[in-house]
Design brief:
Sig_transdc_resp-reg_receiver, Rossmann fold, globular, alpha/beta, DNA-binding, 48% helix, 5-stranded parallel beta sheet, Response regulator transcription factor
Length: 238
Amino acid sequence: MTEQQTVRVMVVDDHPMWRDAVARDLATAGFDVVATAGDGQQAVRRAKATVPDVLVLDLNLPELPGVQVCKEVVAALPGVRVLVLSASGEHADVLEAVKSGATGYLLKSASTQELTDAVRRTAVGDAVFTPGLAGLVLGEYRRLASDPGQSASADDPKAPQLTDRETEVLRLVAKGLSYKQIAERLVISHRTVQNHVQNTLGKLQLHNRVELVRYAIERGIDTPDTHDGTTSPDGSLR
């Protein structure tokens, strides 16, 4: 997925007026809305039939919960990225969504511009969160990484071997830089950054950028620079 390609989007929400409004806003912004769904089972069927680039997903769904939809879609269609759009900002809901495979989490209070920007960035691999939630996710990953029973040893001889460049890109991903920012910092193309990330995902048998962040934190790869913060102002993982 490049920034120039039309992004295929599917919108899932059980409220018809809200669902139609989100679909209309995204279509107006230039996205190709390939399907909508009003319940969880319908969402899984239509996602498999249409294979969108981005699934904009509510969590509170009849028939099948949103987190289960996320799990099933990501398992069946690893290339689909899931952006949760929910009224809930509860920490448990955010963490459950991310653990289920969502690559971003936006509150329904977000403006139309924030939503369209989030969908566009999700499509190219960025992890986008409503400000404040990214720090929550990273904090949870760091908590898990501090538990010796949860993290794998960085010296494990069976661990996949990354190249120096892949490790460098992974470190910047874990700091929350967008692909564009990584490309500028390393003086390489946006496509090259994407290729390094895809190669790393394949080697580590991971599915998305959020899982990469957790992997980096667990192994201490995310060593911060003194000028880096925890989250960027726009809610990117940092």
